[in-house]
Fold this protein.
Amino acid sequence: MLIDDSELMRRLAGGDQQAFASLLSRHSKLVLNVLYRIVLSRDDAEDLCQEVFERLWRHAPQWRDEAKLTTWLYRVANNLAINFRQRVQQRYVLNEDLLMAECDAASLDAEVSAPLLGMGDDTLLRALASLPANYRAVLAFRFYRDLAVKDIAEIMGISAKAVESQLGRAKAQLKQNLGGGE
Amino acid sequence: MQKFLANTLRNFGSNRNTWPRWRQFLLSICTALSDACRQDWQAAQSKVNAADTALAQTYIDGVAELAVSSAMARRLHKITAQPQCRAELASEPGVMKTKMPFWQIGFASAMASAVLGVALGAGGYVAELSDFDAAYLETSMTYEVSDWLAGDIQ
């Protein structure tokens, strides 16, 4: 019998490791792929995915059954991924060997996009890499997860109107980057 | 009206949400009044939907679907070795119900004050008469002021 997420969360609040394993098998791949489509690096997506599930485990006792678990997971994933560039920059500054690389924005862009260039369609991935992170996020939720605008709005913490606007701009910019124009 | 619609589509694109409000308003009038406008609008939307579908397909095909590697799975399963946060008791609905409403707090305070007053009074903590023998009532005393005055004059 399939146990729903709410019941698993109730068990997780009590420290049930089996419930956590069930939630991992159910959601980790989707969270990983959403993150990958925003940060465009497998390694970073895996780190962020781990952070999402660490938060889920740590805060499970405080869980309030008001939103869908997937909405919560995507919201945390989105926030972590959107702040990712800032965190990467901080990491670069802390690493003195790479301090010079931090000063060169082009090298940072290359670092973010390089890991994915060997996979899939280079043109598309380059086009995605040139979009702002929030545009990549809205495209991931719309195209990859096929979520409704109001669900994306709830995840991203913005109005449905703002989502539509970002989605429109993201699609237009992506088309332009792909050479299709508008 | 068709010319207005064509100009708007050319200048502002096919997403009506990005149009100025007055153009959005005129669009609804145009499509309500003119069949030609309605067909043009539907054609524009079909074109957009087709382009969006193509873009979505390009996106889906172009970005690889990652699988959770065994190393990643091990990392995720190790998370349970970490301690969990304690529940925020105050935010739990069950605990919220046991909280006392403000009027009950006021009533409880009043009752507590009354009980404290009775206890202190009965215990004699406030008005203890240590020199009880010296306290007496002078029954022969007169409070008539005129008598005092008369006595002074005498």
Q: What stands out?
A: Chain B touches chain A at residues 13, 15, 17-18, 51-52, 55-56, 58-69, 72-73, 75-77, 79-80, 82-88, 91 (CB under 8 Å). Helices of chain B lie at 2-12, 21-33, 35-62, 70-77, 93-98, 102-123, 145-153. Residues 89-97 of chain B have pLDDT under 50 and may be disordered.
